[in-house]
Batch of 3 targets.
Target 1
Amino acid sequence: MSCTRKGPVPRLLLLLIITMMSGIVGADIVVKDTLGNTVHLPRPAMRIVSLAPHNTENLFAAGAGNRLVGATLYSDYPPDAKKVPRVGGYTGVDLEAVVALKPDLILAWESGNKKSDIERLRSLGFPIFISEPRRLEQIADEIESLGELAGTLSVARRFATRFRERLQRLRLRHADLPSVRVFYELWHRPLMTINGEQLISQAIALCGGRNIFDHLPALAATIDIEAVLAADPEAIIIPVQHPTAERKRKESWQRWPQLRAVTLDNIFFVPSDLLHRQGPRILEGTRLLCSTIDEAREKARAPAKTKGTTP
């Protein structure tokens, strides 16, 4: 005998179902940022402000670029990001401009934004996701987190999966290669470089290079030319924004012919935007970085020509 009841659903059961469904649809979003801070949203973010160019790129990669209502200077990729109102730059955030946009989520950068700006915005009650990836894999993690916060997780997961696959192919292609001693010139006046915790140093290691200043305590540190001469790198890699800067930067190092990198003509240039932004394009920057280190390795391992010999 069938126990199925036909007819209208009892009112109490109907209310229970509606309540349960409402709880699922309106469930709070809880995500941890790279620093381990908990970011809590009552619903997916619809008005997002980005305080760093790489956060902007990651947001678009997560499928939520249309939620961006404000961004800092140099948030110029993808092209649609240029249309967004500016809310400051590397020197600081325009707090009044941010508040006026009434964001329901702010994307900050631990080592790029002033701590006082972040704390001020937090004190005003704005939810803040802080980015500070130290490993290449964490870029994919952050894209997924942004997708979760914006309600575009399926898009973000697909992008993050492709990112991890490309990263793994790069890693396997350059595994177990002879090491190349690399000096990465972050800036020239004053002379600056990176330590082993900096993301670019992780990319150098993936390519089979060894950052000669990986032992320094600061992510970005000022050094003197004597330190570079003493470490005698086999390759010097210089990030530039414009090709016109390459000749002058190369000439400045050619004044030191005792350096092995100069002797081997292992002075290379890479696009700064592709390596200095902790976003998806860093994989293209890493690919170019690996190509330069491969070339440096080949020159460094080539048999030395003997002077005075006849062909």
Note: Residues 169 and 175 are 10 Å apart (CA to CA).
Target 2
Amino acid sequence: MAVRTIAAGGGNWNATATWMEGIVPVLGDTVFAVGTSGQLTVNVASACTSIDFTNYTNTLTMNATLSVGGNVTLVAAMTVTGTGTLSITASATITSNGKTWTGALTLWGGSVSFGDNWTVTGLVTTTTNTTLNNNSITCNGGIKNNGSTTVGSCIIKLGGGTWTGSSTAAIRNPFQFVGDCTVSGNVAFNNNTMTWISGIITTAGSILYVHSVATTLNTSGMTWDQVRFYGVGITHTLTSNLNVGTLLLGNSTNQTTINGSTINVTNGISALGTGSGQVSGTTNIKITGGTIFGDPSSPAIAFMIRLNLEIAGDVTIDSGNYFHYGAGTLTYTSGKVTTTGSILILRLATTLINMDKIAWNTVNVTAGVTLTMNKFFSGSPKQKTTIQSSTSGTAYTITFQDTFEKTAKFVKTSDCSLTRKGQLLVLTPNSDKGGNSGIRYINQSPNGIAKNAPSIVNTMTSPAFGLVTDPCFY
């Protein structure tokens, strides 16, 4: 390996007079500077094996790409100008000594160790799978990892520009948003912690893919356009609220867990996929707008949401699809909910709050499941709600959270069994579909009894004397 030293007169990289040895450096050479070295301009695409500017006090001008197959050492006393690319083509240690790199930086793979914190004004690009270790790199001109995955301990800080990537090639280094920037198209992140610290982050038209490996998100200071969680047997963690336009869930085999905080959704949820896929955990979802999309093909089994879900705005349940839910708490708080043509599938023991405020189209309850409710389902004059078992003739159970009577209107109920007989009063004419146990029917003809059904199955015997106890307290 030869040493090529910048001469006192300096000059263009490709001029022999620029070098004390009278030879232009090539790959395999070390470029060296002394205190008397003059300015150096990379005027054409050039290469060397390492750069040592420890003693340099002059100006490096980058007008073209400089490819380095090894270590790079800058120094605070030097000046760096130009927008050319520094391309690290092999495993190396790169040290800035506090000097900002004004051009672009390309990392071609291998293992790059940052000797100290780097700041890059231009675009940072990783072109093959790369390990980035130690300290941090602040990317003020954006980062591009299309087709390549980064791993390691180096903290990637996005301070400006645009992050572009793909749905599969993930950044797996610690990642921070530290300034105004843009997320564009599909990007992926996993196996580490992503944190919003400062800046206005523009995400319109982008999708963040969180998958494959356990991931932590702490990005409450920004709003994502779309976020998709998936992964088989993977647990993701939210250490602050996640704000997102569209939440994408679903896959035939996903068994994803999301723990912590709340996902605030403003433009809908997609929960598609047949098979045993599901999302569970301690995270709450709060939706204030948009459409909840379920699976269009499977009333029996499809992707299921098992997280607590709050509806708190004008929301549509997609017509003609099956929205599978279970095991969590489904709560209505506010807003107009449109359910025309939709089917809510309740597959596991579930808590339902304020369901009388949503005129569901059809509610299909898995046979043998117990639903805990504060109020019973109610439809509307224009849309009578049908509540039925997944297996005709096999009951599901309703238990209410207190002992007070409940009133329901505009419902058609079948195979429903109450844990407290007589606690539910159904007011709508012709509301009974049969196979129910413990429901009282009033406002019917004749004598307040639904057609073809006794008012209360398993009636109670009145005492020989004294007042009769309200049956809802049995």
Note: The chain has no helices and 55 strands.
Target 3
Amino acid sequence: MENYLKLLAFNFLVRNGDYSDEVFFYIDPEINKFRVIPWDYDDIFALAPHEGKDERKKNIGDKLIFSAEDLLDRKVATDTFLYESYLKCLKEVLENLTPEVLKMVFEETFAELYPYYSDAEIIINVQYDHFSDASIWNLKKELTTLFIGLAASRDRWLNYLNQ
């Protein structure tokens, strides 16, 4: 359960509203406990979860969980014991994702994407994509903006939890 609560915390931080159907659970035979394998993070940094802000608020109020589209997440938000456990995991996740760690992740992401953004054949074909203004400059700008916003959000929620 702790691994799932940490995943829920991470999804709150990165505002991932599409994950209830994009996670696998398996039993790790070495420790005989469930592990979580998240996948498909194409909806991170969303303004609202898939069910919408109003539906989310109706289901879980002002709880620090990004999406309430999944029954398990609604249970975590509405059960006092589970929510307290979740808040401890949220705090731990925020403490571990220091600005230095976040910066490293964004720098590694830029380094991994750089060869594709340097390939003229790829860049010429982005005219058919939803994001038709792909360039190394725009990639750097977007990643910098996301990093600054994520670091500020991390600090805000950590300060909130420490009060």
Note: The two ends are 25 Å apart (CA to CA).
